[in-house]
Amino acid sequence: MTKTQAQPKKERKPKNPNLRNKAYKFRISPTQKQSGKLEWILRRCKELYNAALEERREAYRMNGVSVSYHMQANQLPAIKELREEYQDIHSQVQQEVLKRLEKAMQAFFRRVSNGETPGYPRFKSGDRYDSFTYPQGGYEIINKRLHLSKIGHIKIKLHREMKGTIKTCTIKREGDQWYAVLTTEYEFDPSITFHPSEEEVGIDLGIHCFAALSDGTFIENPHVYRTAEEEIKAAHQKIARCKKGSHRRNRAKKELSRLYRKARNNKRRDFLHKQSHNLVKNYGTLVFEELHIDNMTKAPDPKQDEDGKYLPNGAAAKGGLNKSILDAGWGAFVTICSHKAAEAGGKVVKVAPHGTSQACSGCGCVVPKDLGVRWHSCPHCGCELDRDHNAARNILHRYHLQKQNGAGSVPQRSPPGRTVEAPGL
């Protein structure tokens, strides 16, 4: 008997580097019956997620066995025989629940290997499991209606045109509203995309004003959360006074989610998108500081005296500062600017943040000042301007030095009392 020759492996086509993904979020309006069905699917997906997490945890605790995604996915047909209600849920939706858990476990192991706070995946309550995904099929848009497998046709508000081929569909619940998040894949050709402006601008993000530009322009801070803080606080107090499981408590929770959604999506996200659009349209290069917001918003360490008594450590004042930093949404703003600039032919650059507020943008000398000092006054060259405007000019100058030193270079710390050469502005 002759040995059969091994068939040559098929070569995979190299992935197109110009393929990009984009997510579109649309409001859907299910009927009362469809809304109940969506809630029912969320509950079943939550049960499957928690059961899979418990299986992984107990298998490792009892026998030291690590359960993988494929091992759990192979059990889905048997689960459907025992629990017939899961036959009314699209099979790929159930697989995506297990993949979500797999991603959470991989992120846990990554944090452990990097020495970070592990944060083991926890069981999901009904309030913490708000979405399910059709990864490949089971959805279709027909005549301004979204057809979902096992659910039916749902009215959808297509307020903008989608670009590319739809790859996934995620149904998301936000309070008492439902949304469809459609992820598309499209080909982007950077060689034919040019930004009409070659102007560069340094941007200093702050709290007093949201952003100061190196050309002297200021963007006011809307203080979205601070404006709605009293209403949100009253909504929390109302929930605390209601009996758990009551209809009044459920209505109060929906009101609280509405307030958060209004502040987070309707106001802050709208503000960030509009301001990023204006910046990307007017400037070809946006230069930001490389801020580590997680470190900036850490709570101060507790202080104790010799007897073990806790001393004041400024935690209350730091907590207010942290709340204002997170309210501004700096990280989301830089991310949105990066995406918009990439599609418009521009770019976003980050430079080292140390000393941008202390250095004089006129002569380069260090002028120490506390956070409460909002005006920069240089005793060496007589430069007088707003503190944030001064920082924005230093940010732009550091980018110019970075280009001179070579691509990818990081500005080094200057000797005490003197910064790098001034921009001569």
Rg over C-alpha atoms, rounded to the nearest angstrom: 27 Å
Count of discrete alpha- or pi-helical segments spanning 4 or more residues: 10
Helix content: 40-55%
Low-confidence runs (pLDDT<50, min 5 residues)? 407-425
Number of strands: 16
Tally the structural domains: 2
Described by its quaternary structure, the protein is: single chain
What is the H/E order?
EHHHHEEEEEEEEEHHEHEEHHEEEH
Can you list the strand order of the major beta sheet? Answer: 2-6-7-1-5-4-3
Mean pLDDT: 89
User: What is the percentage of strand-forming residues?
Assistant: 15-25%
Shape: globular
| Structural classification | alpha+beta
Span of the ends, CA to CA: 86 Å
What does the largest sheet look like?
7 strands, antiparallel
Question: Describe it for me?
Answer:
The structure is a single chain. This protein has 425 residues and is an alpha+beta fold. The protein folds into 2 domains: 170 residues, no CATH class; 196 residues, no CATH class. Helices cover 41% and strands 19% of the residues. The chain contains 10 helices and 16 strands. The strands form 4 sheets. A 7-stranded antiparallel β-sheet has the order 2-6-7-1-5-4-3. A 5-stranded mixed β-sheet has the order 10-9-8-11-14, with helices on both faces. The termini are far apart. The C terminus is likely disordered.
What are the salient characteristics of this protein?
425 residues; alpha+beta; 2 domains; seven-stranded antiparallel β-sheet; five-stranded mixed β-sheet; 10 helices; 19% strand; disordered C terminus
Compact summary:
By secondary structure, this protein is α+β, with helices and mostly antiparallel strands. It folds into 2 domains: 19-188, no CATH class; 200-303 and 314-405, no CATH class. It has helices at 32-63, 69-73, 76-82, 91-113, 224-241, 247-282, 293-296, 315-328, 330-344, 387-405; strands at 19-29, 131-134, 139-142, 145-148, 152-157, 165-174, 177-187, 200-205, 211-213, 218-219, 285-289, 303-304, 310-311, 347-351, 375-377, 384-386.
